[in-house]
């Protein structure tokens, strides 16, 4: 068994709760011990840029709170009681019962309990989310698969320009809301309708009518693909997989890919790219004087999950002109997932100057990178990796101080920034990232 110090993900229940609480008027009912829901919500509310609890989340979430007596004699009656109380007190469009380790170990039959509420005006579904079923990313995928298989309308008429977006995990990707807003903005300029499911403009109807889409867009090489495959199997909707596009180079490539798949007029997409590029570079042009005169180019180390590490590295290398030296992916990945990421990384790392590292243990990341830097310092002629900038999480703060580097928190957990609608995707996101990096540099003056 692998020991992980300061993990950057939780169990499946944590991913399920953060996903459910991000959906409009969807409320979880936690069938577990009292500490499960509270601890997991605490980790995500604080660690994701103080995301907050949302509607009937956090300490307000209904929970069966089973005790020793329930563990011995079964907790089904307690769950039945909790569902009755929840229906009385909470106004929601959908309830989703999630399970913890203990209730799954003792074998509570949740579906049998739900049959007592088959006539409820408000739909109630259940999903098994015991910790042994995977991590928070599996929880995200499990929730969406359950909703699209058992809740979405099967016979929704296909809508010519409708697309769904998957792959950005609430809370685990702290900037998921701002990223979704920007991607939606760009796709709408191509004449598309966009289901993001998690932004403020969405309702439960977006979930119900998702099967009417012509294309599913997965903004991750590792997460959300199983959801898209399940969707394709049940509803016949094809899917497209990409990294999160950050900045003008990656975003233009993304928009061209989408326009080809949906047969959008090439003149239309090129006009949009030209307009967005002009806007982007007008802002960059204004800061270029101080950037060049003060020599703000940095070496960089990027530490984050499989979703954002490659995207940020690509932006720093191709658009900002920085020199990334290490990209550290902190997720637990299987060999197939690593192979996919390795292939994408090789296409970016044409000069073989950037080293890709897979490591989940925070102390080992620090130890590994410190040893490399110290070895280089011991040589008479060496690349000093100075000035150095670390784009990581709050866990990298001590390491940054140790090696004299600047740091910007861009991946979970983020404990030193408040995130409202900030995002790094697309053209506006690229500008935000440049602005945030320069803010760190200027703040030290």
UniProtKB/TrEMBL annotation:
InterPro entries linked to this entry: Nase/OxRdtase_comp1, NifE-like
Nitrogenase/oxidoreductase component domain ranges (all copies): 11-440
Molecular function terms, GO-annotated: oxidoreductase activity
Gene3D superfamilies in UniProt: Nitrogenase molybdenum iron protein domain
PANTHER family linked to this entry: NITROGENASE IRON-MOLYBDENUM COFACTOR BIOSYNTHESIS PROTEIN NIFE (PTHR42956)
Record's protein name: Nitrogenase molybdenum-iron protein, alpha and beta chains
Species whose genome carries this gene: Clostridium pasteurianum BC1
């Amino acid at each position: 068994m692998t020991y992980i110090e300061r993990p950057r993900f939780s169990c499946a229940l944590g991913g399920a709760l953060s996903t459910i609480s991000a959906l409009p008027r969807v409320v979880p009912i936690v069938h577990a011990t009292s500490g499960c829901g509270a601890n997991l919500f605490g980790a995500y509310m604080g660690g994701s840029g103080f995301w907050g609890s949302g509607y009937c989340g956090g300490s307000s979430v209904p929970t069966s709170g089973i005790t020793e007596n329930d563990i011995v004699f079964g907790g089904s009656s307690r769950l039945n009681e909790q569902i009755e109380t929840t229906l009385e007190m909470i106004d929601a469009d959908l309830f989703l019962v999630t399970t913890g380790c203990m209730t799954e170990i003792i074998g509570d039959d949740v579906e049998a309990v739900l049959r007592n509420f088959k006539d409820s005006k408000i739909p109630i579904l259940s999903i098994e989310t015991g910790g042994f079923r995977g991590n928070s990313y599996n929880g995200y995928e499990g929730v969406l698969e359950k909703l699209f298989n058992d809740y979405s309308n099967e016979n929704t008429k296909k809508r010519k320009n409708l697309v769904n977006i998957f792959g950005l995990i609430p809370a685990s990707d702290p900037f998921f809301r701002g990223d979704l807003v920007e991607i939606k903005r760009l796709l709408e300029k191509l004449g598309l309708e966009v289901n993001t499911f998690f932004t403020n403009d969405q309702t439960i109807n977006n979930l119900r009518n998702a099967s009417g889409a012509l294309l599913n867009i997965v903004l991750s090489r590792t997460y959300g693909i199983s959801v898209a495959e399940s969707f394709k199997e049940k509803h016949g909707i094809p899917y497209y997989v990409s990294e999160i596009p950050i900045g003008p180079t990656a975003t233009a490539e993304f928009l061209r890919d989408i326009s080809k798949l949906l047969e959008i007029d090439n003149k239309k997409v090129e006009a949009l790219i030209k307009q967005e590029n002009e806007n982007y570079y007008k802002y960059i042009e204004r800061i270029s004087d101080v950037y060049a005169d003060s020599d703000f180019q940095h070496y960089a180390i990027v530490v984050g999950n499989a979703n954002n590490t490659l995207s940020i590295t690509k932006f720093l290398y191709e658009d900002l002109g920085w020199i990334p030296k290490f990209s550290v992916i902190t997720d637990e990945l299987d060999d197939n997932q690593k192979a996919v990421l390795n292939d994408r990384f090789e296409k970016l790392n044409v000069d073989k100057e950037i080293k890709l590292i897979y490591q989940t243990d925070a102390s080992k990341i620090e130890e590994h990178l410190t040893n490399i830097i110290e070895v280089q310092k011991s040589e008479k002629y060496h690349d000093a990796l100075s000035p150095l900038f670390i784009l990581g999480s709050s866990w990298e703060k001590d390491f940054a101080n140790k090696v004299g580097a600047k740091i910007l928190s861009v991946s979970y957990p983020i404990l030193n920034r408040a995130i409202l609608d900030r995002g790094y995707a697309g053209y506006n996101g690229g500008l935000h990232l440049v602005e945030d990096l320069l803010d760190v540099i200027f703040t030290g003056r």
